[in-house]
Amino acid sequence: MTSEAGQVRVWRPGRPCPVARMLLHRRRGAGDPTYHLDDTGRHWRGVRTPEGPATLVVRARAADGEVHAEAWGPGAGWVLESVPGLLGADDDPSGFEPRHPVLVEAWRRYGEVRIGRSGLVMESLVPAILEQKVTGQEAFAGFRMLVHRYGEPAPGAGPRGRRLWVQPTPDRLRTIPSWEWLRMHVDPARSRTLVQAARVADSLERTAGLPHDEADRRMRSLPGIGVWTSAEVRQRAHGDPDAVSFGDYHVAKDIGWALTGTPFDDEQLEEFLEPWRPHRGRVQALVGVAGLHRPRRGARMAPRTHLPATVTRRV
């Protein structure tokens, strides 16, 4: 169905669908130029699809059991088709058993936790690489600069749509010179990984249709993409319910604290989560949805004021 403003889709999921919870996971900081949450609760996204850029707006009509979506631009049809998958329609949580009392209570309180999939690998991979072993503040600032300098305004949707942006194309990423990456506070290791990923972007996008283990293997065959980066991408692009962010500064500590009262390291977390395979990532997601994390003490980590020649990174 098409309105004067754009193409429209009404989806009836047949189950409670927490639109905000599913979509906000994709926002890269409050200032993400590709994402806007307006005062009426509508979620606006600038998306680069295989058919071209698009603006997507999604809102829940919980009383009617509906999700309303509207889209503009060359990729409008593609992005509307992706909405059910984005909101977890392709995920099957039926084999998941919470087991632990904390998870049982969270599952009861928040309902089943589904893993959405965008089907767009580079959309998730670019910001994930930027977030490797830096503060969120630094990563989000770098992402904003990258999108504003080398992306493009999202199409249509009137004044609101013009305030949205779409990430740069892989071709554009490949042409960014080294000194411009430095101006965006992206060190050579991360910029090199981004450029290498852009060179094989088509192959990386094809991993969205592969079994999750094979997608993980292929992504991690690229230098600079390791366990953490692959998991972050598979959680968003592939809808992998077993993807765990091993190597994250907080994840292992928070899950350990939430479920045992003692923060874990990655090795302990891997052993602890083994009984939940192939839903280990759903445990991470459920702990996050419930807002369970160890108490934060001390000052926040400050962003770097210089770019060292070498850094120890989570990848």
Secondary-structure map:
Elements: E1 7-11, H1 19-24, E2 35-37, E3 43-49, E4 52-61, E5 66-72, H2 76-81, H3 83-86, H4 101-110, H5 121-130, H6 136-150, E6 152-153, H7 158-162, E7 165-166, H8 170-175, H9 178-183, H10 188-199, H11 201-206, H12 212-220, H13 227-238, H14 251-260, H15 266-273, H16 280-289
Antiparallel strand pairs: 1-5, 2-3, 3-4, 4-5, 6-7
Helix pairs in contact: 4-16, 5-10, 5-13, 12-13
Topology as a string of helices (H) and strands (E):
EHEEEEHHHHHEHEHHHHHHHHH
Q: Please estimate the helix content.
A: 40-55%
Distance between the termini: 43 Å
Shape: globular
DSSP helical segment count: 16
- Structural class, from helix and strand content? alpha+beta
Q: Main sheet: which strands, in order across?
A: 1-5-4-3-2
The description of the largest β-sheet is: 5 strands, antiparallel
Low-confidence stretches: 305-313
Return the average pLDDT rounded to an integer. Answer: 92
Number of strands: 7
Rg estimate, integer Å: 19 Å
Determine the strand fraction and express it as a percent band.
5-15%
